[in-house]
């Protein structure tokens, strides 16, 4: 493998010294870029794009051609794992992801098999190895998965949900069934992420998109417990260096201390959290990633630069901060505003790394 030319993202996650704060954006390969839209049209639909390793590689690299980003993230979807379990994933216009066969009974859960990542998810591994080769050491490659709780919400609800009625009913009325499902998902995600590392991923991120929908105690029981199980089972060293792990619970600001106890290397913060407060609470234990509101990218460029300045000042001096948005970039953002954001992070952050 080619030697890494820019490793400041990996160094920041491990709280090692850097020359400036690294930056990347969740969903940086996506619908705000005209070149992405053209490639997706070429693929035909979203899942065809995910399953074509050459096109998945192309869209992963597109934002790196435009911007001086400090990391690439595998182009894929969090629902690849339930899809590989045979649930029949499809995307409905205006509705988002749906499953033909929801996992909403204990009998359906018992029938689920843990997928072989090199077989049923071989197309993801092919994308990982292709992207890693084509990056040629330019920046590190991030592999990722959804958290067991988040994957389970889609599987039980049959798709996206605003109320989480079915999954919460299972959590409180049939907890044994839900724990069986979460346990299988934790095993599946662990194998899936370790296979990504074996194929070239240099950092891992677990997206717990719906953890914030849980009560204080239910979060620990149904979400954090299974992310802990995954962290305990991950490959943490490859290619002669550490493989950092980031946990991100959207709406998870209440539980930062508990998340930091898992043994992960970094926590993702959404925009509802004050980064100065987060660093006071957990900064000695873990690095922090975040956390500008993605909607700020609609603002005039001077306002974006001002927000970057405030967040950098909030984190303060020293390493351990990866600048990012508090969630994925919105599809209608002007690509020039995204570029100004990235430049502002690099230019303004040097003063904090002397």
Automatic annotation (TrEMBL):
Pathway where it operates: Porphyrin-containing compound metabolism; protoporphyrin-IX biosynthesis; coproporphyrinogen-III from 5-aminolevulinate: step 4/4
Major place of residence: cytoplasm
Entries under InterPro entries matching the protein: UROD/MetE-like_sf, Uroporphyrinogen_deCO2ase_HemE, Uroporphyrinogen_deCOase
SUPFAM superfamilies to which the protein is assigned, alphabetical: UROD/MetE-like
Class in the EC hierarchy, top level: lyase
One Pfam family named in its UniProt record: URO-D
Site (Transition state stabilizer): 77
Binding annotation for substrate: 27-31, 77, 154, 209, 327
Domain Uroporphyrinogen decarboxylase (URO-D): 22-31, 142-158
Subcellular location: Cytoplasm
Record-listed E.C. numbers: 4.1.1.37
Record field: catalytic activity: uroporphyrinogen III + 4 H(+) = coproporphyrinogen III + 4 CO2
Assembly and binders: Homodimer.
Role of this protein: Catalyzes the decarboxylation of four acetate groups of uroporphyrinogen-III to yield coproporphyrinogen-III.
PANTHER family the UniProt entry points to: METHYLTETRAHYDROFOLATE:HOMOCYSTEINE METHYLTRANSFERASE RELATED, UROPORPHYRINOGEN DECARBOXYLASE
Homology family: Belongs to the uroporphyrinogen decarboxylase family.
Protein name in the entry: Uroporphyrinogen decarboxylase
């Amino acid at each position: 493998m080619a030697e890494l030319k820019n490793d400041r993202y990996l160094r920041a996650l491990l709280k090692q010294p850097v020359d400036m704060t690294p930056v990347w954006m969740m969903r940086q390969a996506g619908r705000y870029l005209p070149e992405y839209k053209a490639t997706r049209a070429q693929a035909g639909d979203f899942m065809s794009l995910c399953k074509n390793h050459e096109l998945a590689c192309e869209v992963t690299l597109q934002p790196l051609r435009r911007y001086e980003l400090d990391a690439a993230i595998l182009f894929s979807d969090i629902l690849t794992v339930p899809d590989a379990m045979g649930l029949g994933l499809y995307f409905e216009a205006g509705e988002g992801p749906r499953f033909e066969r929801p996992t909403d009974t204990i009998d359906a859960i018992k029938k689920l098999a843990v997928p072989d990542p090199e077989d049923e998810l071989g197309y993801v591994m092919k994308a990982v190895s292709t992207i890693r080769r084509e990056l040629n050491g330019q920046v590190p490659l991030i592999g990722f998965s959804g958290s067991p709780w988040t994957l389970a919400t889609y599987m039980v609800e049959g798709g996206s949900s605003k109320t989480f009625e079915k999954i919460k009913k299972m959590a409180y009325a049939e907890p044994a069934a839900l724990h069986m499902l979460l346990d299988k998902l934790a095993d599946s995600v662990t194998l899936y992420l370790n296979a990504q590392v074996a194929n070239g991923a240099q950092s891992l991120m677990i997206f717990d998109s719906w953890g914030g929908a849980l009560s204080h105690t239910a979060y620990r029981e149904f979400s954090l417990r299974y992310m802990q199980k995954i962290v305990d089972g991950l490959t943490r060293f490859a290619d002669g260096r550490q493989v950092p792990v980031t946990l991100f619970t959207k709406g998870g600001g209440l539980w930062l201390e508990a998340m930091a106890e898992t043994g992960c290397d970094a926590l993702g913060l959404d925009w509802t959290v004050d980064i100065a407060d987060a660093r006071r609470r957990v900064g000695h234990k873990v690095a922090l990633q975040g956390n500008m509101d993605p909607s700020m990218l609609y603002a005039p460029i001077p306002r974006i630069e001002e927000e970057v300045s405030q967040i950098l000042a909030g984190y303060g001096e020293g390493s351990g901060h990866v600048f990012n948005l508090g969630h994925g970039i919105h599809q209608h953002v002007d690509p020039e505003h995204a570029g100004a954001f990235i430049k502002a992070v690099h230019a303004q952050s040097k003063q904090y790394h002397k």
